[in-house]
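Why predict the complex rather than its parts? Because the way molecules touch one another can change local conformation, and only a joint prediction can capture that. The input here totals 886 residues.
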Amino acid sequence: MELLLGQVFNGFSVASLYLLAALGLALSFGLMRVINMAHGEMLMIGGYLAYLTLQVVPGPWRLVAALPVAFVGAALFGALIHVVLIRRLSARPLDTLLATWGLSLILQQGARSLFGAIGVEVTAPAWLDGGISVLGIELPAVRLFIIGVAIAVLAGLALLLSRTRIGLLVRAVNQDRMMAAATGIDAGRVDLVVFALGTGIAGLAGVMLALLGPVTPTVGQSYIVPAFLVVVMGGLGSIRGTVAAAVILGLVGSLAQISVDASVAQVLMLVFVILFIQIRPEGVVANKSRALDV
Amino acid sequence: MSPLPDRLLEVDGVTVDYDGFKALDGFSLTLDAGEIRVVIGPNGAGKSTLCDTIIGRVRPSAGRVLFRGQDISKLPEHRIAGLGICRKFQAPGVLASLSVADNLGIAAAIDKRWWRSFGFGTPPAEAERIAVILERIGLAGRRDVLAGTLAHGEKQWLEIGMVVATEAELLLLDEPTAGMGPAETTRTAELIRSLAGDHSIIVIDHDMAFVEQLAARVTVMHQGQFLMQGSIAEVRADARVAEVYLGRAK
Amino acid sequence: MFRLKRQFVVAAGVAGVAAFAPFVLGGYDLNLLARFLALSLLALGIVLTWGHGGILSLGQGVFFGLGGYALAMHMKLTPLAPGEVPDFMMLGGLEALPAWWVPFGNPGFALLAVVLVPGIVAALFAWSVFGRRVGGTYFALITQALALAFATLLVSAQETTGGFNGLTDFQVVLGLDLNGAEAGRTLYWVTLLVLALGWAGVAALLASRFGTMLRAVRDGENRVRFLGHDAAAYKIIAFAVAAMLAGAAGALFTLHAGVISPAMVGVVPSIEMVIWVAIGGRTSLAGAIAGTLAVNFARDAISSAFPDLRPYALGLLFILVVTLLPGGLAELLAARFRKVAR
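Output of the joint prediction:
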């Protein structure tokens, strides 16, 4: 029982990471129908930025300083990628996959040249040591912090989309790009902002990864494939669907680990997604759309 | 209940619900064999959804679609197509990297089972049909041109040709004259009139000049519902039609 | 337009010339060429699926691996006396051969498995995805997850798959002594023959009505469906055929490299396979073979001289080819020919 509860908690904390990694992918995919294969490297950049911040900033609360640094750094990087690469390829989703994968190779090797292949350690601050005990299971503070950050990001995003002007523009372009453009909305600008926002969130995810283990040039790779599966399962352009898919996959992965090892659990996640497609090919949250895709 | 022998299509109280928005709301329509029917209505009246429902792209949440008396509202799309219903879409969608003849060939294929595709060339019966249609749609001289390089009007005719090539009994033509000039529109109307008798046709359009040239019965839709039906003159004279087209509330 | 006769003539001509390579090249270079010709066989399948079918698979390494492992398992079993188990299994503490290994002792079964296992796995996988109308980017992402899962499984099931090191140290295949003087040449010719047959076969497939249907599905899948065709069937078949080619390529590659390991089948190698074809020209069979040879020879040269440079070069190549030259070298050459002809 304790094992089960522990794995459920673990599932939620892994799901939080999947969600932070997948939100940016899902936002851009909904809006532009493209997937950025270098998204995993945005996590990596966030991780290294956290490491650098902790080198420079003193004091116990320096982790809090690392969050905005990682967010802004990764967002700027994302904006650059969008301007240089994504925008040029926006009508060719499969080519975008390939080009951004090339970029991911370059970024990984760049990190290897700058920081070495071994990886750097980020020590979690003292206030994240220990944990609390609930129902006889020990909940590590780091994991609680990660879940908290994911919830905060989600709440912030929901506020942004529902209450702000940019949120309104995003929803307009998401609904009907041509119509939005016809009413004078600069859809390209909206794409850029959303893309940068998404990579910024990935940067935050990178800080979370840095708390769990060393930051290596390939640190993003271990979370990005599950994040892709979250996007596949989530349903086009739906944040609710992305959240649900992240939680489901996080739980499937960690509950599977009660009886099988981690690598088989990964296979089971894939099998689960394929089975899921049989039942709901349109994703967890289906947007019945009239958009013609003939 | 046996349907009348000459009744080809019966849309019976169909409702289609897009997340709370009723694109079709208890809509009914019947079509006899060999008839041309024009469906008009303001934007958002549900005309395209009607086509989508008949060909099985959209599933009704209530009501039935009967084709020759058989309920087709739950069949997969390719089965519906196999029964003899074919639709031309609103957005021009010829197969761009295939030649004009290959586009027609794919539509004209008599045996559409995949394992029959492992062969070369076009079976003679289909080649003959393709040649006839090329003449009919006026593209005989352009049979080997890539469809993606055709002019806009030519693409529309090719698409009508593809629909005809399926030898479907019921053709659904969604805005066949979109983006055409008056001369092209007249030619298209002639083409469609020449198809009646061999096929039953539902035409969706809102170009009244074109609708007049078709000289067919007209069904008017509004907000997913049946509004009225009659000749073009009757429709023009109808106060309710004028109201919905002018956008006044009832 | 796909001119079949010309394809046959070119394929036969190229194979005829390449057949003399063993008399010109040294042992090492011949081995490299043979490996890359085996990889070209896989590239033909990518032309079929991606170039003509619009299906981007980032998991071709899986089918390559299935073919490679099928033959490797057979080669591990050949020299054993009854009751013995391969060396790595003994190290892992296994005393009896796992049941799923047993049939691979039969050469006929192993050879069939080289193409049929990838073909069947691919067909089932594609049927479960395309059959539900899931395609495009979604399909690419799922195939990548498949590649990751496959490689991870191979590593974790150490005692029955050889784990991270894979299967290696082969002595004999179907009676041919792999350490013998003639082995290199013989295997080279076998590879060349299989490649030429594969080339002709895929060319025929692309020129048939099937090829037209496949391109039609790429251009407008819904349109084809509403014209009464089962669009998914064409994608499933193309994907399965590509997987069979990948399986045969994996088996041949394993013969030349003397090893098959998870490092050759995972996410990164799988996506690299696409770039070979992107560079050569995604719709051109000759281009795909040329691209595979060019990238791999260049890669071999760069890797030994400047190992750090390889990811930069490969990454940049991806970006530049995809953004600036989506038709690949084949398009560049075709444009040049048109200019000359004018």
